[in-house]
Amino acid sequence: MTTVRLPLFPLNSVLFPGLVLPLNVFEERYRAMMRDLLKTPEDEPRRFAVVAIRDGHEVAPSAPGMPDPTALPERGPAAGFGPDPMKAFHKVGCVADAATVRERADGTFEVLATGTTRVKLLSVDASGPFLTAELEPVAEEPGDEAGALAEGVLRAFRQYQKRLAGARERSLATGAELPDEPGVVSYLVAAAMVLDTPTKQRLLQAPDTASRLRDELKLLRAETAIIRSLPSLPAPDLTRGPTHLN
């Protein structure tokens, strides 16, 4: 299978195909990445790959701190990811297409990208100003009974939304139409559920759409049952998307 080399943007969250990713880019390694992307002609996609961090820090320490206040902060494209960045990242990620890359007066960037296709991480190169990776596309197979499973997941997801809104003591917005294409449903629900990163990563790398939908159906039923037993949820806004320092 043909491979591709793209800039690599590690995050403490999982990006799914079809989902929007807003970024506030201020670290120099990622500012260099954005400056490089801006060299791409406007009629061509400005692509980079997003992978979830397994062991490391989304933002590298910029000053000495605990446990050693005399230790110097790390520098360079792999700062915060250890001597072998490959070990710091989950092996399946998502290509992002940057529709908007806007440089601010202070040199930071406001970026709005959309996930497109899944990719497998083959190698990481830290020799340049930012990380790049050799990637292999991961095909999305429908699997068995994906259509019927999608219908069940949508019903369970609507119930989950109602329970979540009730536990948070706010009304549920019902104006938005939910999709019916199984692959789109599987990614939308995976992104919208309140789950930890390892669970979302498991959903991203599911072998096919039907497997992802089966997993989501179990998760939705379990999470809905948990929410039903809670009088309220303490988090201020659990359904809001993750905020990235970069």
Overall description:
Pfam families: LON_substr_bdg (PF02190). This is LON peptidase substrate-binding domain-containing protein. It comes from Streptomyces thermospinosisporus. InterPro entries: Lon_prtase_N (IPR003111), Lon_prtase_N_sf (IPR046336), PUA-like_sf (IPR015947). The protein has helices at 28-37, 85-88, 146-167, 182-192, 197-204, 209-228; strands spanning 4-11, 20-25, 47-52, 92-103, 109-125, 132-137. It has 246 residues and is of the alpha+beta class. It has a 5-stranded mixed barrel. α3 runs parallel beside α4 and α4 packs parallel to α6. The longest helix is centred in the middle third of the chain and has 22 residues, at 146-167. It is globular. The model is unreliable at 171-175 and 233-243 (pLDDT under 50).
State the main characteristics.
single chain, 246 residues, alpha+beta, 5-stranded mixed β-barrel, 6 helices, globular
Count the E strands: 6
Separation of the first and last Cα atoms: 32 Å
Number of helices: 6
Shape summary: globular
Strand order of the largest sheet: 1-3-4-5-6
The class by helix and strand makeup works out as alpha+beta
The percentage of residues in β strands lies in 15-25%
> What integer is the average pLDDT?
86
Point out poorly predicted stretches. 171-175, 233-243
Order of helices and strands: EEHEHEEEHHHH
CA-atom Rg in angstroms: 19 Å
- Major pleated sheet: 5 strands, mixed, barrel
**Fraction of residues in helix:** 25-40%
